[in-house]
Amino acid sequence: MITLRRISQILFFALFVLLFLQARYPYETGLPSDLFLRASPLIALTTMLASRAFITTTILALVILALTIPLGRFFCGWICPLGTVIDASDHFIQRKRRPARQRESLRLRSWKFALLILLLVAALFSLQLTWFLDPIALLTRTFTTVLYPMFTYALTGLFNFAFKLQIAEDQVYALYDAAQRAALLPFQQPKFLETLPMVVIFIVILGLGMVTRRFWCRNLCPLGALLGLFSKYRLTRRFVSPACTQCSICQRDCKMNAIEDDYSINNTVECIECAECVSVCKPQAISYRWGVNPGANEIDLSRRRLLQAAAAGIAAVALVKTAAASRNRTGLAMRPPGSLNEDQFLDRCIRCQACSKICASTGACLQPAFGEAGLEGVWTPIAVPRLGYCEYSCNLCGQVCPTGAIQPLALEEKNKIKMGLAFFDKSRCIPWYRQDDCLVCEEHCPLSDKAIKFDIREARAPDGSMRTVKFPYVVEDLCIGCGICENKCPVVGAPGIFVTAAQQKRITL
């Protein structure tokens, strides 16, 4: 059974990576790249609570939640890609051998239930906080902003080194082409803002394995807490035969510390069906099978802790909802085309950065926000035109959003939606401050009827001479705010033309 579990973990993790890599232009896949995000019951429940709407893309998550009732926390032990990464990390971490029963860890594992209550209460008051702790959103975000860029940078460096050696060039170029076709290499190196806090969080989660195996899963994961609540009355049970010698090895090696002092009893809320106890039992006294075994199924959450968690959720809502955002920075928070109105968008967005990943091929237009959207909008996607522009022929961000925060739009419809509006900074734009012609912004405007036009007139140059200059201006009714003009502006530093969220159009459901 343990071999089957490991094979299952490897296969599902490989599927996670494959779907992650497929999220690129051109987007051609049989399975949606956001399949694992759709499968998270925590994302589904909190997003529907926060948005007060049933989200059809999360039906798979509801199926997994229903299957948890008879099968237990199979998702944690057999499917969860973050659980697989933690298991792999734990394998290489050296930790001191501790006593079989750790009372301190038993107290710590109540934290995940407290965090679950906090997230549910916050969602009930229309505050989406699941993005910070859901393991699938967390891993997808880390892959997008940290691990994938690091991997592609290293792989590109290896190919560049091989090209310089000029040895077996045909084979090296064939490998390079194969890497591009397999989506291992992007069209250009992805670079993201806010990567430092994201990588720190990921390192801390793995580093907690130095304390005990699967520390995150045991004590902090709110998705595990949710699945534990539904697995309380599972039908797959751990049975111990009279051959048990009370050696305590199964209890000591249990990843989740789910086995009680009476080794025949395990906590069904904590057990993730990993079958480690079966593999380490020398007399082979342990087995998993269908049936009803009384056992222990207590939830480690006292009434006081429950009330404290609920109060913390309400306090979080009050803190975030009353935090003022900078008017100047908020004006720079341009959402992807097809985004819901801001309140609905914040209710649904889980900050997974799936939209940023699939947008990266056009120059990393979408970036995680920091203060541009206020405290409630931290790490939500915004367009940063100076880093990348919204490709006119691309509508992929809406196709990979797992919660509908960005609605899927046909290309023709997407190209009619205003993301924002461009303005000229006449103190920096070359024709305006230097009286020299510069046609870059107009040439790159993707619209058939250009949104940037010229006012041609005589002007006095800095040397005192008179010359004919084309002064650019923006036609507001035509501009869609794609940002290519700002991205391509040749002015060093702050551009001569910039795009804000002015006149942006949002969708209301």
Can you walk me through this structure?
It is built from 24 helices and eight strands. With 509 residues, it is mainly α. Among the domains are: 2-144 and 198-290, no CATH class; 418-509, no CATH class. A hairpin with a 5-residue loop joins strand 6 and strand 7 (466-474). The longest helix has 31 residues, at 135-165. Residues 100-104 have low confidence and may be disordered.
**Strand portion, in percent?**
5-15%
Strand neighbour order, sheet with most strands: 1-2
- Structural class call reads mainly alpha
| Count of DSSP-assigned helices | 24
Which structural traits does this protein have?
8 strands, 509 residues, two-stranded antiparallel ribbon, two-stranded antiparallel sheet, mainly alpha, 8% strand
How would you sum up this structure in a few lines?
It contains 24 helices and eight strands. The chain has helices at 2-22, 35-38, 41-51, 59-71, 74-79, 81-92, 103-108, 110-124, 135-165, 169-181, 195-207, 215-219, 222-230, 249-253, 276-280, 303-321, 327-330, 342-348, 354-359, 397-400, 411-414, 430-434, 440-444, 484-488, and strands spanning 236-240, 286-290, 366-368, 381-383, 421-424, 452-460, 466-474, 497-500.
Spell out the blueprint of helices and strands.
Blueprint: H1 2-22, H2 35-38, H3 41-51, H4 59-71, H5 74-79, H6 81-92, H7 103-108, H8 110-124, H9 135-165, H10 169-181, H11 195-207, H12 215-219, H13 222-230, E1 236-240, H14 249-253, H15 276-280, E2 286-290, H16 303-321, H17 327-330, H18 342-348, H19 354-359, E3 366-368, E4 381-383, H20 397-400, H21 411-414, E5 421-424, H22 430-434, H23 440-444, E6 452-460, E7 466-474, H24 484-488, E8 497-500
Antiparallel strand pairs: 1-2, 3-4, 5-8, 6-7
Helix pairs in contact: 3-4, 3-8, 8-13, 8-16, 9-11
